[in-house]
């Protein structure tokens, strides 16, 4: 119970009223949509030349410190530490920094050869798959195509290196993220419903089609 109370206090401090309601509902009922794209679709290629002022580069310690310096209100200590872990040579995930005219515009995380089991909260091996997660565009670069370019570049790069599929999942109702993934083609193949009633948890999966 104390864990729930502390979570409520933190939510009230750091969010708008609308965000508070949404997050409190999600504490009890959370619905996720899971996505898959087959890379031979190649719909993504049209986005690469559309944004000539953008580039991506794998994260290094200099870029990480620079992000923290430039965007202290958007890079929390938790985020910084999570991104720092991707620099470990044993890390499953990689982080790519997105640049706009040589200025840091955002970042994108991937895990190569893995998917994510959200029910058990763990990575699972999936050969030739790219799992996308923790996509972030800094506020001043929002709605400028940063994430679209970065994802297209990564799909193109790893398709050339033999990868066959990509995957991700979002919260139901996050229509901005859904629209982002929809533009690349692919399909939403699974819905996961998570119910948490004061520590009593129940999960259910529903497949939209045979995948």
Description:
The protein is an alpha+beta fold and 211 residues long. The chain has one domain: Gcn5-related N-acetyltransferase (GNAT) (Aminopeptidase). It contains six helices and eight strands. The chain has an eight-stranded mixed sheet. The longest helix is centred in the C-terminal third of the chain and has 15 residues. It is globular. It starts with a helix and ends with a strand. The mean pLDDT is 89.
The total tally of domains equals: 1
Judging from the principal axes of the Cα atoms, what is the shape? globular
| Name of the CATH first level | Alpha Beta
Corresponding CATH architecture: 3-Layer(aba) Sandwich
Give the biggest sheet: 8 strands, mixed
The low-pLDDT segments are none
Number of strands: 8
List the total number of helices: 6
Topology as a string of helices (H) and strands (E)? HHEEHHEEEHEHEE
CA gyration radius, whole angstroms: 18 Å
């Amino acid at each position: 119970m104390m864990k729930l109370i502390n979570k409520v206090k933190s939510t009230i401090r750091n969010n708008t009223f609308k965000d508070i309601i949404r997050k409190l509902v999600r504490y009890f009922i959370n619905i996720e949509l899971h996505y898959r794209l087959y890379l031979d679709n190649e719909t993504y290629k049209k986005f690469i030349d559309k944004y000539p002022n953008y580039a991506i580069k794998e994260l290094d310690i200099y870029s990480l410190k620079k992000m923290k310096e430039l965007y202290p209100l958007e890079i929390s200590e938790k985020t910084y530490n999570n991104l720092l872990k991707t620099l470990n040579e044993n890390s499953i995930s990689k982080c790519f920094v997105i640049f706009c005219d040589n200025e840091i515009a955002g970042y994108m995380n991937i895990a190569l050869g893995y998917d994510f089991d959200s029910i058990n909260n763990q990575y699972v091996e999936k050969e030739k798959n790219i799992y996308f997660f923790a996509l972030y565009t800094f506020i001043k670069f929002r709605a400028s195509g940063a994430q679209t370019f970065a994802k297209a570049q990564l799909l193109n790069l790893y398709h050339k290196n033999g990868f066959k599929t990509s995957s991700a999942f979002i919260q139901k109702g996050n229509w901005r993220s859904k629209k982002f993934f929809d533009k690349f083609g692919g399909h939403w193949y699974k819905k996961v419903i998570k119910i948490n009633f004061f520590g009593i948890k129940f999960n259910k999966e529903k497949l939209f089609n045979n995948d």
